């Protein structure tokens, strides 16, 4: 990939920037230390987060590819930059829950930490103006956000990601409470895993102490945010 040239910035999101390259099918994502919560209402910086999220995402995406889930990963270019396949993002936040927490606990009146009898697959419509409202398959179909086949593929991959990650994180002493993933469509219509898998997008609790090792420390002003990200990096990548 030595001859890929970084081009103009295409997009700046809350946690990442995206750049064009000289190959129309490839883009470069550049992870920032900026952190937001509550639909952008709370803003801050988590020092070193961009490096950790870039490296952890790529580590997990490689493992998931090997487990049969196609991803957008092409090549890690630097601590913060990764070359990925260009996709159009399916406008769904795909959430899997193993244990009650966050908005589920609030909405359902179930205390945080209660184990669910089966994993839950849940969708939100990715739309900042609307605050990413909760939707179901029928909304997605009726609004043309995805086809039935695409939803089936997304559900199959999401549960495969969950099975793999629950076991992987158990092995490093972490309970995977819930997470959000996003999928993209390549120019030929193939659905692949995109975006990131990191302490920004997953709830990680230490298996023994139940200490939170994720973005909830930022959302809830708990302190020790950087240390939690570093601890996850150490457990996953051994450094
Ligand atoms: N999540 C995310 N981005 C969002 C909303 C949620 O990455 O915009 C992740 C969040 O970190 C958690 C899971 O999705 O791991 C479920 O989040 P929940 O619906 O409980 O929302 P929250 O309580 O974070 O608002």
Give a structural overview.
The chain has 239 residues and is α+β, with helices and mostly antiparallel strands. It is 30% helix and 33% strand. It has six helices and 14 strands. Strands 8, 9, 10, 11, 12, 13 and 14 form a seven-stranded antiparallel sheet that branches. A five-stranded antiparallel sheet has the order 1-2-3-7-6. Helix 1 packs parallel to helix 6. The protein starts with 5 loop residues before the first strand and ends with a helix. Uridine-5'-diphosphate binds next to strand 9, helix 2, strand 12 and strand 14.
In short:
The protein is of the alpha+beta class.
Topology, pairings included?
Layout: E1 6-12, E2 16-21, E3 26-31, E4 34-37, E5 42-45, H1 49-66, E6 73-76, E7 81-85, E8 88-89, E9 92-99, H2 102-108, E10 115-125, E11 134-135, H3 137-142, H4 148-171, E12 174-185, E13 191-194, E14 202-206, H5 216-219, H6 225-237
Antiparallel strand pairs: 1-2, 2-3, 3-7, 4-5, 6-7, 8-12, 9-10, 9-12, 10-11, 12-13, 12-14
Helix pairs in contact: 1-6
The structure holds uridine-5'-diphosphate.
GO molecular function: ATP binding; phosphoribosylaminoimidazolesuccinocarboxamide synthase activity
Pathway: Purine metabolism; IMP biosynthesis via de novo pathway; 5-amino-1-(5-phospho-D-ribosyl)imidazole-4-carboxamide from 5-amino-1-(5-phospho-D-ribosyl)imidazole-4-carboxylate: step 1/2
Pfam families: SAICAR_synt
